């Protein structure tokens, strides 16, 4: 197979499949899945994400509800909005875009979303369900990585998988998903000793650190599969055009790896596709039509 793992193409296919399922839901059950995206204040990066989330939601036939609140919205006002969305029968998925302004307790807000509509998979109930093997809604980015790995590798039983980064959003749920696939999982982080040696033993490397090109090409075992979650914006040349790089030295790593995701065009597009998938899943479950 191709060395570069084309997340953009895979995500496109996934979105087509979701759109077809949405059509079936509408035709056979008269149900339209609905996703509400809530954003507080103005953050340019969040703005880009929210816009493309809402656009893609509409494109696959779902109801897209965008709620933008001013930066000085109180925590209480936001909690009231979340509670209203919890009760709204047209809404099956609720996403509160992070980061939130500092005067708002993000955990309190995220924990107020009912777990059944928590399409980001951040609610402690979903975290617990994922780790105990229940019917969880799984965080979108690690879910996307897992789909790419399954597509590329098939059965991952017994493989050594190293996840670098232990965030609640990516690293920890990624480790859980690999464990579910019967990998032998190592969760590495900023205090890990001799990271190069840890990575060298891995058949699967998932890098989610947030440091540009920190994983060196020569660390990668021959034949390994590398998933690069990092999205790091580097200031560009004199013209000031910035460029995106991952957490892995892609070109050098590709000399050893059997497969590797590029940045951009790897994991990034999978994240929104998985958000749509989670919304569809939540909708089916809320209507007792799953799985
Ligand atoms: P985070 O900052 O919450 O976590 C980073 C983790 O890296 C921490 O657990 C830390 O222990 C570990 N770490 C830091 N320095 C290290 C070192 N020197 N060696 C080993 N481990 C180290 O970040 P996050 O939210 O998990 O995101 C990680 C990266 O993934 C970022 O670049 C982010 O932009 C990107 N990201 C991409 C998507 C996507 O859609 N593709 C989604 C979420 C995050």
Automatic annotation (TrEMBL):
It comes from Insolitispirillum peregrinum. Its EC number is 1.5.1.5, 3.5.4.9. This is Bifunctional protein FolD. GO terms for biological process: L-histidine biosynthetic process; methionine biosynthetic process; purine nucleotide biosynthetic process; tetrahydrofolate interconversion. Keywords: Amino-acid biosynthesis, Histidine biosynthesis, Hydrolase, Methionine biosynthesis, Multifunctional enzyme, NADP, One-carbon metabolism, Oxidoreductase, Purine biosynthesis. GO terms for cellular component: cytosol. InterPro entries: Aminoacid_DH-like_N_sf, NAD(P)-bd_dom_sf, THF_DH/CycHdrlase, THF_DH/CycHdrlase_cat_dom, THF_DH/CycHdrlase_CS, THF_DH/CycHdrlase_NAD-bd_dom. Residues 5-120 form the Tetrahydrofolate dehydrogenase/cyclohydrolase catalytic domain. Belongs to the tetrahydrofolate dehydrogenase/cyclohydrolase family. It comes from the Bacteria. NADP(+) binds at residues 165-167, 231. Transmembrane segments: none annotated. Residues 139-285 form the Tetrahydrofolate dehydrogenase/cyclohydrolase NAD(P)-binding domain. It catalyses: (6R)-5,10-methylene-5,6,7,8-tetrahydrofolate + NADP(+) = (6R)-5,10-methenyltetrahydrofolate + NADPH; (6R)-5,10-methenyltetrahydrofolate + H2O = (6R)-10-formyltetrahydrofolate + H(+). Pathway: One-carbon metabolism; tetrahydrofolate interconversion. Catalyzes the oxidation of 5,10-methylenetetrahydrofolate to 5,10-methenyltetrahydrofolate and then the hydrolysis of 5,10-methenyltetrahydrofolate to 10-formyltetrahydrofolate. Homodimer. The keyword Hydrolase applies.
């Amino acid at each position: 197979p191709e060395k570069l793992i084309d997340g953009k193409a895979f995500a496109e296919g996934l979105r087509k499949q979701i759109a077809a399922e949405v059509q079936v839901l509408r035709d056979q059950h008269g149900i339209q899945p609905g996703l509400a995206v809530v954003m507080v204040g103005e953050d340019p990066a969040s703005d880009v994400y929210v816009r493309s989330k809402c656009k893609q939601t509409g494109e696959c036939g779902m109801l897209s509800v965008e709620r933008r609140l001013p930066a000085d919205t109180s925590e209480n006002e936001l909690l009231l909005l979340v509670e209203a969305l919890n009760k709204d029968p047209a809404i099956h998925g609720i996403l509160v875009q992070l980061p939130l302004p500092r005067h708002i307790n993000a955990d309190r807000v995220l924990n107020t979303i009912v777990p059944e509509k928590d399409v980001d998979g951040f609610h402690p109930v979903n975290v617990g369900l994922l780790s105990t093997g229940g019917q969880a809604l799984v965080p979108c980015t690690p879910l996307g990585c897992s789909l790419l790995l399954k597509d590329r590798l098939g059965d991952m039983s017994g493989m050594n998988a190293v996840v670098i980064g232990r965030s609640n959003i990516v690293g920890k749920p990624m480790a859980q998903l690999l464990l579910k696939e019967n990998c032998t999982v190592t969760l590495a982080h900023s205090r890990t000793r001799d990271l190069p040696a840890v990575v060298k033993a891995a058949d699967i490397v998932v890098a989610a650190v947030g440091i540009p090109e920190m994983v060196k090409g020569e660390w990668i075992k021959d034949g390994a599969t590398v998933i690069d979650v990092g999205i790091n914006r580097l200031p560009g040349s004199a013209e000031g055009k910035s460029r995106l790089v991952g957490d892995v030295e892609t070109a050098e790593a590709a000399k050893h790896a059997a497969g590797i995701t590029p940045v951009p065009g790897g994991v990034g597009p999978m994240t929104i596709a998985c958000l749509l998938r989670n919304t569809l899943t939540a909708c089916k479950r809320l209507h007792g039509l799953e799985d």
